[in-house]
Design goal:
It is a multi-pass membrane protein. The protein is mainly alpha-helical and about 575 residues long. The chain has helices spanning about 10-20, 20-35, 40-50, 55-70, 75-80, 85-105, 115-145, 150-175, 180-195, 210-240, 245-260, 260-275, 335-340, 340-365, 365-370, 375-410, 410-430, 435-465, 470-475, 480-505, 525-555, 560-565. The chain has two domains: about 20-275, Growth Hormone, Chain: A (Up-down Bundle); about 325-569, MFS general substrate transporter like domains (Growth Hormone, Chain: A). It has 22 helices and no strands.
């Protein structure tokens, strides 16, 4: 087990590693670490507002367009059903670069000032690339490690949550404190990562691993170390003025921590290599295809759990003829069966309330800090805190909910109920601010926002199966842009502008008297966040319905069929 590699074995081992599950997982971490550009909107939104002379309602319309693009992933899901993963990643890279590059050209004045609807299209296209990264990396990883899906989703979405803080440090090192250059960075860097690993990530045959849970906790430790360092460096930058060299040094350390899971992946692949070369007769022995270790493309050979096996062929009916059929929970639903099920609609309503309110809070955080009189550097720290605690929320909900299911049979939707109740506290702190309370609110909002996504994705995979997971998990998050539009554009933006107009009237000014419509004071966001608190509380009550409906299912062994499938390899 601890044997090394001979010189003659180095090349074969390297090829096995580059084509193996563990390197694909590491590549997925990197892709997801670059897929969180949408969470940096609060950092560069003021640049767009000032450069293009937008009011808050228009800026919130841009925020909605971003959320629409980021959450309407049905197209990426459907494309993934009929094309290989490399094509999905390439499309995502093209959309990411094209959308954000056009925004950068507009903000820097290199093209004529676009109309509002054109800017909405640009940011929608750029944000939609996130879905292709999710579908390519996240869905593939869940299929490759089906028994650890909660932990897997928590880690992958956790790296997305850290993406904002990681790219902030890189842009400070490369471009300095220039928000316009941040837009350029989030255009080219995620696209480059996807192109580099385009042939690495693909669905492979599930393989039993002796200590898979332990390995994921080691990945968790590496990611937590990265998050803690990001938090420390972010807070230090607010207290100490960094030189260009200091920013470069911090960015170098961060890049090293981002790449640290590579060492764990190499070690695990070496374990597989040694077990192939030196069988120990263990019942947990790992068996792989000898010509292409660990790799069997799902579209060619792989029989995923729940799909028909060889010799058990059936003539499949049209999905329209089976729409009224209701498989058991955990079996493979068709897309129409899932979309018409009561469980999906209950989850949709809870997501509409929970994620819709969270997206609104995150998008307005920069403006909230400005309205409460915080300096620009402090506002940037709020955005970074949201990004970091977004990560902690994701990995916490993924790992803790997985542990509660395996050990105590606690329904995963119950965790979502608790997360939404926690979010209500953060919104109350924004509605009724105290000195320094926005720091606490940023942490709570970031944590609760991050915790929701892995829970939603895991619940969909558990209730409706993995056969059409690429499409279903993208359908499941459609509620969030709808909630964002109603709560952000129609509610928060409108009420903010109304308060700003009242302030102008008190000064004897009109809208044409000022370039940017700005509201200063705790009253600016009070009413919208009171409403968001009640909406989120209603979402928590809605999620309790799903807890009741699925409690018997979660009491069963929901991973049994995946273990049986892996053991038969």
């Amino acid at each position: 087990m601890g044997r090394g590699i001979k010189g003659s074995e180095l090349l074969p081992f390297t090829l096995q590693f580059l084509r193996g599950r563990w390197f694909a997982l590491f590549a997925s971490f990197l892709i997801m670490a670059g897929a969180g550009a949408t969470y940096l909107f609060g950092t560069y939104s003021k640049e767009i507002k000032a450069t293009l002379d937008y009011d808050q309602t228009t800026l919130n319309l841009l925020g909605f367009s971003k959320d629409l693009g980021a959450n309407v992933g049905v197209f990426s899901g459907l494309i993934a059903e009929v094309t290989p993963t490399w094509f999905v990643l390439l499309v995502g890279a093209a959309l990411n670069f094209g959308g954000y590059f056009m925004i950068w050209l507009a903000v820097t004045g290199r093209i004529a000032k676009p109309k509002v609807w054109q800017m909405c299209i640009y940011i929608c296209i750029g944000a939609n690339s996130q879905n292709f990264a999710n579908t390519g990396a996240l869905v593939t990883s869940v299929k490759n490690f089906p028994e650890s899906r909660g932990s897997m989703l928590g880690l992958l979405k956790g790296y997305t949550g850290l993406s904002g803080a990681v790219m902030t440090q890189i842009y400070l090192a490369v471009y300095g404190n220039d928000s316009k250059s941040l837009i350029l960075l989030i255009g080219w860097l995620p696209a480059a990562i996807s192109v580099i690993f385009v042939y690495t990530i693909r669905t492979m045959k599930p393989v039993r691993h002796p200590n898979e849970v332990r390995v994921f906790y080691q990945f968790l430790g590496a990611s937590i170390l990265l998050a803690v360092f990001l938090m420390l460096i972010t807070l230090t930058e607010k207290l100490v003025t960094f030189s260009k060299a200091a920013y470069a040094g911090a960015a170098t350390l961060i890049c090293f921590l981002v790449f640290s899971p590579l060492f764990i992946s190499v070690r695990e692949e070496l374990l597989i290599w040694n077990m192939q070369k030196h069988p120990i007769g263990s019942p947990m022995e790992i068996t792989v295809d000898k010509s292409t270790p660990e790799i069997l493309e799902s579209k060619q050979v792989v029989s995923m759990p729940g799909s028909p096996k060889q010799g058990d062929e059936k003539v499949e009916k049209s999905c329209f003829l089976t729409i009224c059929d209701r498989p058991e929970r955990g079996e493979d639903y068709t897309i129409l069966q899932a979309l018409t099920s009561l469980d999906m609609w209950v989850l949709f309503l809870a997501t509409f309330c929970g994620l819709g309110a969270s997206l609104t809070a995150v998008d307005n955080l920069g403006q909230i800090g400005e309205s409460l009189g915080y300096p620009n550097k402090t506002v940037t720290s709020f955005v970074s805190l949201v990004s970091i605690w977004n990560f902690f929320g994701r990995v916490f909900s993924g790992f803790v909910s997985e542990t509660l299911i395996v050990k105590y049979k606690v329904p995963r939707p119950l965790m979502m109920t608790l997360v939404l109740l926690l979010a209500c506290i953060g919104y109350v702190l924004v509605a009724f601010p105290m000195p320094g309370s926005l720091y606490v609110a940023s942490i709570i909002i970031g944590f609760s926002f991050g915790a929701q996504l892995p829970l939603i994705f895991a619940i969909i995979s558990e209730l409706f199966g993995l056969k059409y997971y690429s499409t279903l998990f993208n359908c499941g998050q459609l509620a969030s842009p709808l909630g964002s539009y109603i709560f952000n554009v129609k509610l928060t933006g409108f009420l903010y502008d109304r308060e700003a107009m009242k302030d102008l009237a008190k000064k004897g000014l009109t809208r044409s008297s000022v370039k940017a419509l700005t509201c200063i004071g705790s009253h600016c966001y009070r009413l919208p966040f009171i409403i968001l608190t009640f909406v989120t509380f209603f979402g928590a009550l809605t999620s309790l319905i799903l807890v009741v409906r699925t409690r018997n299912y979660y009491r069963s062994d929901i991973y049994k069929k995946f273990r049986e499938n892996a053991e038969s390899l």
